[in-house]
Amino acid sequence: MKTFYWSLVLMLLPSMAYTQTTEKENEFSMSMQIRPRAEYRNGALFPRLEGQEAASFINNRARLSMDYKRSDLEIKMSAQHVGVWGQDPQIDKNGRFILNEAWAKLDFGKGFFAQLGRQTLSYDDERILGGLDWNVAGRYHDALKLGYANKKNEVHVILAFNQNDEKTAGGTYYYSDAATGQPYKNMQTVWYHYKADNVPFGASLLFMNLGLETGDKSTQDSHTRYLQTMGTYLTYKNSSWNFDGAFYYQMGKNKNAQKVSAFMVSATAAYAFNNTWGAVVGFDYLSGDKGGGDKFKAFDPLYGTHHKFYGAMDYFYASAFKYGAPGLIDGRLGIRLRPSSKVDMELNYHYFATAADMDINEDLKMVLGSEVDYQINWTIMKDVKLSAGYSFMLGTKMMDFVKGGNHNSWQDWGWVSININPKVFFANGN
């Protein structure tokens, strides 16, 4: 409860210090998005078993966004309907149209602001906090964000306190899973970014304290454990080279009340030969846990956009392991081609292995397999983009053990999507 009270105090402080500024202008804009995606899944997310048939479907995002701005205030409301074609009846009395964004941003001048409500938290390269736009629904948090920015420095403080309902008594027990609420009970995060003046260098620092409910659901007995994640993200980019690297460490306790000591490290180097060709090489190491120790050593990348990093077939962190928490070693080699201003494509190869030498009786090596991902994007017209991709995985016996399925069965995945996202209205005036 102390976290909740401090959140209220911090929320009120900016408004107490606020002095009215002269309104410069009012802006209102409206945008729409229709994004259907047809998928053929023959081993996506989880490897398929021998003889298991492929699945096909078309999912869709229909989103309406409205944004109002003036010199000291911005409000955004965005509603969406997401689902699969044919999921709802022709005569539907219980439509699933929800607000995916609903926030207000108060600008206090001199770089200070407060943003509160349902919002995307997307930071750095999205390894820890990401918008997950690939997912048909996206990812959003209910939070208060306090910030300051100048030419070279930017700092955000993010506070959240979650409950299942308006309670009248009974404490603060919070039940959370993928279907009922946020995965954490409370959160306190500080993010700082520095951008150099004379060189193309940037550095970020992140500290996140997550309160995780580990109490008893049957008795509503609340017991909050705290998991800390801290680290840095560095970038350097010139006309040809693009380097970035990150290191994060986790400590505290997880939802299973285990003591945690885990880390991850990543490094990427990309080179543009010219405006048409480019290449990228990357390496990720996320520590794993083989069991039996006094501390849990598997790193959790939390709320990042995992689809962006660990293979397009989403075997790792976007879906669960069948056995244990082996961590991940991911080596990536990619080629990028932009034959015209409207077409670009990318081909990536991933080599996967477990980070932990799993304590198992079978004679299995740590190698999980290789994945090949191809994607092409074509801008058909203004605000309309057609994208398609194809991936396949060549797994091993270790893949069968930690993820399930049968590595002797062909595992592949293909998709086609069209993204129609125009700004349909804009107006301003004093």
Question: Layout of helices and strands, plus pairs?
Answer:
Layout: H1 2-17, E1 26-42, E2 55-70, E3 73-84, E4 97-109, E5 112-119, E6 141-149, E7 153-161, E8 186-195, E9 201-213, E10 224-237, E11 241-253, E12 259-272, E13 277-286, E14 328-340, E15 343-353, E16 367-381, E17 384-395, H2 397-403, E18 411-420, E19 423-429
Antiparallel strand pairs: 1-2, 1-18, 1-19, 2-3, 3-4, 4-5, 5-6, 6-7, 7-8, 8-9, 9-10, 10-11, 11-12, 12-13, 13-14, 14-15, 15-16, 16-17, 17-18
Could you give the count of β-strands?
19
**What proportion of the residues is helical, as a percent range?**
under 10%
In angstroms, what is the radius of gyration?
A: 23 Å
Oligomer: single chain
Question: What is the succession of H and E elements?
Answer: HEEEEEEEEEEEEEEEEEHEE
The major sheet is characterized as: 18 strands, antiparallel, barrel
Shape: globular
Strand content: over 45%
Overall average residue pLDDT: 93
Poorly predicted regions: 15-22
Structure description:
- The protein is globular.
- It has helices spanning 2-17, 397-403; strands at 26-42, 55-70, 73-84, 97-109, 112-119, 141-149, 153-161, 186-195, 201-213, 224-237, 241-253, 259-272, 277-286, 328-340, 343-353, 367-381, 384-395, 411-420, 423-429.
- Helices cover 5% and strands 53% of the residues.
- It contains two helices and 19 strands.
- It has an 18-stranded antiparallel β-barrel.
- By secondary structure, the chain is mainly β.
